[in-house]
Amino acid sequence: MDSALTRPEEARKAFAEALKIYRELAQRKPGTYLPYLATTLNNLGTIDSAQNQLEEARKEYGEALKIYRLLAHKNPENYLAEVAQMLNNLGLVDSAQDRMAEARMEYAEGLKTYRKLAQKYPESYLPNVAQTLNDLGIVDIALNRPEEARKAFEEALKIYRELEQKNRETYLPHVARTLNNLGVLDHAQNRLEEARKAFEETLKTYRELAEKNREVYLPHVALALNNLGILDRDQHQTKEARRAFEEALKIYEAYAKQDPEQFSSDVKRVKELLEGLLR
Predict the structure, then answer these.
(1) Nearest alpha carbon to residue 227 among 268, 179, 275
(2) Class of domain 198-279
(3) pTM (2 decimals)?
(4) To 5 degrees, how large is the angle CA 127–CA 130–CA 136?
(5) How would you class 251 by CB atoms within 10 Å of its CB: exposed for 0-12, middle for 13-18, buried for 19 or more?
(6) What is the CATH code of the structural domain delimited by 1-74?
């Protein structure tokens, strides 16, 4: 799918043609071709979601989910994971469209399914449990359910820390992201010391990651600095806030030269934060 996303129009035409063929074949031999039909629908949904064609993606993921539910009813061992994946894909689309109640139901069912799978195959599915908990926590914040969000983030963090002990390179970025989510929640609830611990560990972790892969992780360093700077500002530590904002701005300005569409809004935001310190 990576190559498909770099050439989406060509991929869309190929998948659309495959979809037409698989629909015809599935009518004659559903036992053989329904799985191929569902896979093609998911591929189209992924392309449409990436291109912000969310209604089309919703239809494609929804139809794929319906097929996978049917297949999982007869063969849960092979298709239950696909049911969970389609639920999470729909949750992402609904979150992007601010349909948070629907997203929550999808993530909750996806989480329940992944938990069931993880009981039998923990190494394969615990990462999915943690990812879904993170997604669910973000939705709970949007729905003003902060305590449910905290439980989700804390469980996700616990899982990722355990996974990181076995595979640091793969799971350390997930630890950092979950810590940041907890820090944002703590700050919003005025739990400022807890927020500081979370943001400081997030920043330390992203700095470590950026030493090995600057291109990917320096923007995350900037975001962590931004969040820590806002916390410093709110605790009247103006000197520390200014230092954090200035470092974040320097990073964002460098990236904005390469990709202004993505990073110019970050430059503007941090400049405004710096100006606010001087008023």
Answers:
(1) 179
(2) mainly alpha
(3) 0.91
(4) 140
(5) buried
(6) 1.25.40
Query: How far apart, in whole angstroms, are the C-alpha atoms of residue 179 and residue 127?
Result: 16
Instruction: Fill in the DSSP letter of residue 228.
Output: H
The candidate with the shortest Cα–Cα distance to 142, out of 90, 104, 112, 178, is 104
- For the record, the structure tokens of 203 come out as 């920043």
Give dist(CA 272, CA 279) in Å, integer.
Answer: 11
Q: Where in the chain are the domains?
A: 1-74, 198-279
Tokens representing 123 are 């190494």
CA 278 to chain centre: 35
Per-residue pLDDT of the chain (279 residues; tens, 9 = 90+): 544 556 778 888 999 999 999 999 999 999 999 999 999 999 999 999 999 999 999 999 999 999 999 999 999 999 999 999 999 999 999 999 999 999 999 999 999 999 999 999 999 999 999 999 999 999 999 999 999 999 999 999 999 999 999 999 999 999 999 999 999 999 999 999 999 999 999 999 999 999 999 999 999 999 999 999 999 999 999 999 999 999 999 999 999 999 999 999 999 999 999 999 877
Name the DSSP class of 75.
-
Q: Which amino acid is at 132?
A: T
Distance of CA 118 to the CA centre of its chain: 20
Fold match, 1-74 / 198-279: yes
Question: Can you read off the two tokens belonging to residue 118?
Answer: 């993880």
